[in-house]
Each structure stands twice: as structure tokens, then as C-alpha cells.
Amino acid sequence: MAMTANSHCIQLSDGRRMPLIGLGTYADPKKTPKGTCYKAVKLAIEIGYRHIDGALLYYNEHEVGQAIRESVAEGKVKREDIYYCGKLWNTFQSPELVRPALEKTLKDLQLDYVDLYIIELPMAFKPGNTLYPKDENGKYIYHKTDLCATWEALEACVDAGLTRSIGVSNFNRRQLELIMNKPGLKYKPVSNQVECHPYFTQPKLLEYCREKNIVIVGYSPLGTSREYWVNLKIPPLLEDPLLTSIAKKYDKTTAQVALRFNIQRRVVVIPKSFNPDRMKENFQVFDFSLSDEEMKAIEGLNKNIRYVELLMWKDHPEYPFNEEF
């Protein structure tokens, strides 16, 4: 079936469907004026976005929820038209904390359920009210990670009707297999959200996840903003000469070409932008398609290097990026 602005979903292993393009809502709360995320989500729904990616850690789920609820109340969409993904943060991985964390997200959103709830990282931190717990020397305080126990608590959240589907983020193959091979597995992870773009195409993880019917959701599909914690050794993706030349051919932007590349590979993309023009532009990827030769050429850009390395947690026993994939 051809992808269109109105119909561009991918089937999940549990029978539900996820739109191939969504809006990322990550924002630094210190730099983002109040109400910015609310306005962006409201506009995104008007543009045609139906997939919103959020997290408790972004400190803006109350704004996302307000935008969704108002759009429903105004008759622009039904609740079931919107696909919302929330995330379980590292300090809530102890099984008894999983449901309360999801309930907090639902309270902030003021919604009855989320469509997808995922483990944000396979690394547990010390439980408590501090999201980034550190000792007196400024070293992060970790907690014993039991991904199978955390997963069982997520399965209970599905049974309780708090989330429709469950998945993971930043998991490598070994960590996925821990869950997939868990005795008594009730619900498989439907998705794995990882960094994915033309400079980091994830060929091996993508192939493995396809075999296991796990959808890859690509974050940073346009590279990343040049934040201090990002790997700045990689040049900005959107200045790449090949992407620029293909964009010129189709009268598109390099961002649109990068997004189109991933959605043609059936990789879900969640570009983050609160800029109205860019949000509109990022959604205009259904009126052109890349040829097989162009897809191969873009695949050839893969540098196998991450923008998002999370090196501050490299000493965590479950740091996921030490393994090839």
C-alpha cells in the first residue's frame, strides 16, 4: 500500500499500528519557554501528525496532554487517532515502581492510557526522587538492573489497560534477547527506539529486529542539534553533499530526503522540532520517493558512528553501546 499523509502506519507484532512519522518532544526545560511544547503539539495535529513521542524526563507531558485533549474536544481528532509513546526512566526500573511511573505520566497527560510505553534505557539508576542520582563525588549512582523483572511489570501495565503496547529503547541484541527468551514471556517488545539516520543506518540491528518482528523507531533521524553532550566529531548530517544533491533533484530539503530514506526502509521517524515551518516541512515526505539507486547511495553514507553516545554512563554494567549491535 502506498504511503500517504493520511495513511502511513506500520503493523506491530501485537496487531496494532504505529504511524511511520511522529513528532519528537524532547526539550531542555531550562531553555524552553512554558507553553512551547503545547503549541507545537497542537500545530502538529493540525498539520497531520498522529504520532507523538514523549517522556516523563522531558518535563512537558502536561503540555502534550493538554494539546491532545483540546484537539479531541475541538473535534479535530478522536483520541484513538493519536498514537502517544511514553517512557520509563532509569530510576523507576524496580518492578514495584513501574506502574506508579506510568500512572504519573497518565496523570500529567490526563489521559486514560498511552499507546506505547517503553523502557527508555537498559540501565537502572538508584530509585528515588532524583532523576540523575549522584554521590558526593558527582558520580552517578547505579542500581542492579533486572530487565526481565522490569518487563514483567510492564506486561502487568498492559493487562491493567494503562498502555496498549510495550517496547524498549537503546537496547542491543543481547538485551533484546534477554527479554525475548524470558520464561513465561507474555508480550513481546513491539519496538526498539534507537538512533538511526543516513550516517548511522543500523543495518545489523535492523535486520535482527525485522527477523523478530520488532519495529525500529529512529530517533535523531536528522542528526542532532549540536549540544555539548553530542559527539561533534561527526559533521552535521544535513550538510551532506549527496543528500543535498538528491534534495535538489526533487526540489526537497536534505531533511526531507533523510526522513524519506528511513520511512522507505519501514523505520519509524520522530524528528523533533517546535519550529512551525520545519514541522510542516518534515511532514511533507509523502509526495516523492527515492529510487533503489538513491537508497543504496544513501546507505553507503553510513559511518557507523553515533551522535548520541551517552558516554557519561559508559561504566554502567548494562551500557548498551559496547557491543556491535
Topology:
Blueprint: E1 9-11, E2 17-19, E3 23-24, H1 36-47, E4 51-53, H2 61-73, E5 83-88, H3 95-109, E6 114-119, H4 147-159, E7 163-169, H5 173-180, E8 191-195, H6 203-211, E9 215-219, H7 241-250, H8 254-264, E10 268-269, H9 276-283, H10 292-299
Parallel strand pairs: 3-4, 4-5, 5-6, 6-7, 7-8, 8-9, 9-10
Antiparallel strand pairs: 1-2
Protein architecture, described:
- This is Aldo-keto reductase family 1 member D1.
- Belongs to the aldo/keto reductase family.
- InterPro entries: AKR (IPR020471), AKR1D1 (IPR044483), Aldo/ket_reductase_CS (IPR018170), NAD(P)_OxRdtase_dom_sf (IPR036812), NADP_OxRdtase_dom (IPR023210).
- The protein is an alpha/beta fold and 325 residues long.
- The chain has one domain: Alpha-Beta Barrel (TIM Barrel).
- Helix content is 33%, strand content 13%.
- The protein contains 10 helices and 10 strands.
- Strands 3-4-5-6-7-8-9-10 form an 8-stranded parallel beta sheet. A two-stranded antiparallel ribbon has the order 1-2.
- Helix 2 crosses helix 3.
- The longest helix has 15 residues.
- It is globular and about 55 Å long.
- The protein starts with 8 loop residues before the first strand and ends in a 26-residue tail after the last helix.
- The model has no long low-confidence stretch (mean pLDDT 96).
Name some characteristics of this structure.
single chain, alpha/beta, TIM Barrel, eight-stranded parallel beta sheet, two-stranded antiparallel sheet, 10 strands, globular
